[in-house]
Design brief:
The structure holds 2 protein chains of 2 kinds.
Chain A (H helix, E strand, L loop, with lengths): L5 E4 L12 H10 L3 H14 L3 E4 L3 H12 L1 H6 L1 E6 L2 H11 L1 H9 L4 H12 L3 H13 L9 E4 L1 H10 L2 H15 L2 E5 L3 H10 L6 E5 L11 H10 L3 E5 L9 H8 L7 E4 L4 H16 L1
Parallel strand pairs in A: 1-2, 1-8, 2-3, 3-4, 4-5, 5-6, 6-7, 7-8
Helix pairs in contact in A: 2-14, 5-6, 7-8, 11-12, 13-14
Chain B lengths: L1 E6 L3 H12 L3 E7 L3 H10 L4 E3 L2 H6 L5 E4 L6 H11 L2 E4 L7 H10 L7 E3 L7 H11 L6 E9 L14 H4 L3 H17 L4 E7 L9 E7 L5 E7 L9 E8 L2 E6 L2 E6 L9 E6 H4 L10 H14 L13 H18 L6 E2 L6
Parallel strand pairs in B: 1-2, 1-4, 2-3, 4-5, 5-6, 7-10
Antiparallel strand pairs in B: 7-11, 8-9, 8-15, 9-10, 11-12, 12-13, 13-14
Classes of the chains: A alpha/beta, B alpha/beta.
Chain lengths: 289, 350
């Protein structure tokens, strides 16, 4: 019998992310501008059994994390999974200042340690030092919460995999694990490709977050190769986009997922208590049937 | 296998380079960029790549079949000229030109070019807009008499920094950076207008426009308008929407869905509403960096160079289309400088 996975709360709805409808995303974000509404939902999620939350480094997400850090009940019991970085900020920044210009601008926001490291990097034109500084800058807001793992955003993961930037891959894993004592994870929209690359590079027991759903939404290049890679995978998998951005009904979605091997956790987003509660119950029922 | 390279390893260069590296039929050989950090970094990370700070040396001295030009707009023209001279197929990010003079000058040397070209109007490869093209081609709503479009994002609420906000380097503001996508879609769906009128506004940028409202008039009584700004509240992501009204109904398309409304049944659809969601319309792609249409775009271009069939037949926006589009962009600014006066557009329909 397949073990019931952990359920992690997604937080995209708090900052306007909705992959099915931009308009709905923007509308929902208005409700969650009030952090009390966010915390109320997070408390509820914890009570019913969610064991963690995924957060990007969107400015509003950072404000939410700060409030979680102030609440001992939440900060002691809930795992927080940062997903670095909030890519839209980098895209907009690169549009404004060019990529290198934006990276320099980000560095200025760092603390003394990261500034020193970054400055050395700038002087020696060593991008690897600059990248380490950026990791520190992005993770600074999470220092007072219990981090589960730190995930690299899918755009950066998939660029590293596609260009086979082995040195950056190892830098990220080693820097996160040595300095933050948590596992370095990777988000990808191209799981078969990543799985093959990680196998060739002998990455042991990798932690991967990837879309898994009944209709193959965001599962590239196709659902069949993703399911095959899932069956052959030797590592930990967190399934995301399990409802295909809300297109699938939860019963169908989780009946499908519950029959798959190797899924350790599932990410579920929700903008109301009833939605979270219903989805959590359906997941548990799907695995117990 | 074809040999591909990038000129300009910034954000878009990295995206296209990563996409091309994933294609089994492409040998990605390297890039040219004048930024020392990018050059030094990649020389260390990818010692097998050919990397050169000088694009002319790079193009003249290497065996390259196709190059992706992702440098700032003001540099496109000179790089394209070298590609034409050497008959290297090229992709260039939009807009292709800084000015109408550049477009006209290039059109005089294009007849000698034997390669293929494409300009980065990637919205043609978004599944909802592809579906809309299909529905319009099928004449499901009959003759279209009216359209309205908008394109908004919450990007700029203070004076911007960098080359994008310097008209000498970029050629303009929101119109050349953003609205041109919407105008290209309209051209692709309906053809080129005969007259253009425009009002622009500088809200935060002293030297380029932050908002444009453009009217398009066609000889066959078709009329429409588009509105676009990068300074709109509550638009986290770029949001595009177009409404078409025809004899037998309407089509409303945005990034997420297509809504077809018919006043009577036809062979394929019933009277009333039919909605197509992007989730139903989309398929997996070779590689997805969070925007699958970039991968589709690059795949279509590579296939066109290799003369391969591609199951989604989509019109490529090539350099000739950009020469025509530059006419439209230029008339927009002329009209805006003349209080929105309608100005004739003359395009080459060959």
């Amino acid at each position: 019998m397949i073990k019931t996975p952990n359920v992690i709360m997604g937080s995209g709805q708090f900052v306007g992310v909705n992959h099915l409808s931009h308009e709905k995303g923007d509308t929902r974000a208005n409700k969650f501008k009030n952090i009390d509404n966010v915390l109320d939902l997070i408390f509820f999620a914890k009570e019913i059994g969610f064991n963690g939350i995924m957060f990007s480094t969107h400015p509003h997400s950072i404000e939410i994390v700060k409030q979680i850090a102030k609440d001992k009940t939440l900060s002691d019991s809930l795992f927080i999974y940062p997903n670095l970085p909030y890519i839209q900020k980098y895209v907009t920044g690169a549009n404004e200042m060019g990529m290198i210009g934006f990276l320099y601008d980000m560095i200025k926001q760092g603390n003394t340690k990261s500034l020193i490291m970054a400055s050395k990097g700038v002087i020696t034109k060593n991008i690897l030092s600059i990248i380490k500084s950026l990791i520190d800058i992005e993770l600074n807001s999470f220092k007072n919460v219990k981090m589960g793992s730190v995930f690299l955003h899918n755009v950066l993961t998939d660029i590293i995999v596609s260009l086979e930037l082995d040195e950056l891959l190892h830098l990220y894993i080693e820097y996160v694990e040595d300095n933050y004592n948590v596992k370095a994870g990777f988000v990808t929209l191209n799981f078969p490709k990543l799985s093959s690359y990680f196998s060739i590079k002998n990455i042991k027991n990798p932690l991967i977050q990837t879309p898994i759903n009944k209709i193959g939404f965001q599962m590239n290049p196709n659902i069949e190769s993703n399911i095959k890679s899932l069956n052959d995978f030797d590592g930990e998998i967190i399934a995301m986009s399990t409802l295909a951005a809300g297109y699938l009904n939860p019963s169908d979605a989780y009946t499908f997922i519950s029959k798959l091997n190797n899924i350790n956790s599932i990410i579920v987003g929700g903008s109301s208590k009833s939605h979270l509660s219903e989805t959590f119950e359906i997941i548990n029922n799907s695995y117990s049937n | 296998m074809i040999k591909a390279a990038i000129i300009g390893m910034g954000k878009m260069g990295l995206l296209h380079g990563s996409t091309l590296s994933s294609f089994d039929d492409v040998d990605f050989i390297g890039f040219s960029d004048d930024n020392k950090i990018m050059v030094d970094t990649f020389k260390k990370l990818k010692p097998d790549w050919i990397i050169n700070k000088n694009y002319k040396d790079f193009l003249y001295n290497n065996d390259i079949d196709v190059v992706f030009i992702t440098t700032p707009i003001s540099t496109h023209y000179e790089i394209i000229k070298v590609c034409i001279e050497k008959n290297i197929s090229f992709f260039v990010e939009k807009p292709a030109f800084h000015s109408l003079d550049q477009a006209n000058s290039l059109s005089s040397i294009l007849p000698q070019f034997t390669g293929k070209s494409m300009v980065g109007y990637m919205m043609r490869f978004i599944s909802t807009f592809q579906k809309t093209k299909e529905l319009i081609n099928q004449s499901l709503i009959g003759d279209i008499r009216y359209f309205e479009g908008n394109m908004y994002i919450s990007q700029l609420f203070k004076e911007g920094k960098g080359w994008r906000y310097d008209p000498k380097l970029s050629g303009g503001g929101v119109v050349v950076h953003q609205t041109c996508h919407l105008l290209d879609l309209i051209n692709w769906f309906l053809g080129f207008p005969n007259h253009i009128g425009a009002i622009t506004n500088n809200w935060f940028s002293p030297n380029v426009e932050d908002h444009a409202h453009i009217t398009l008039k066609y000889n066959n009584n078709l009329f429409g308008w588009v509105d676009s700004t990068w300074s709109r509240f509550n638009k986290r992501m770029l949001s595009t929407r177009i409404y078409f009204e025809g004899e037998f109904g309407s089509i409303t398309v945005d990034d997420d869905s297509v809504k077809l409304f018919l006043t009577k049944n036809n062979n394929e659809f019933e009277k009333g509403w039919t909605t197509f969601s992007k989730v139903e319309l989309g398929n997996g792609v070779d590689i997805d960096f969070g925007a699958p249409y970039y991968s589709v775009q690059d795949r279509v271009f590579i296939n066109s160079i290799m003369n391969k069939d591609f199951i989604r037949k989509t019109d490529i926006h090539d350099i000739n289309d950009s020469i025509n589009l530059q006419q439209i962009l230029t008339r927009i600014y002329e009209s805006a400088n003349n209080m929105g006066k309608l100005i004739k557009v003359e395009v080459n329909n060959d």
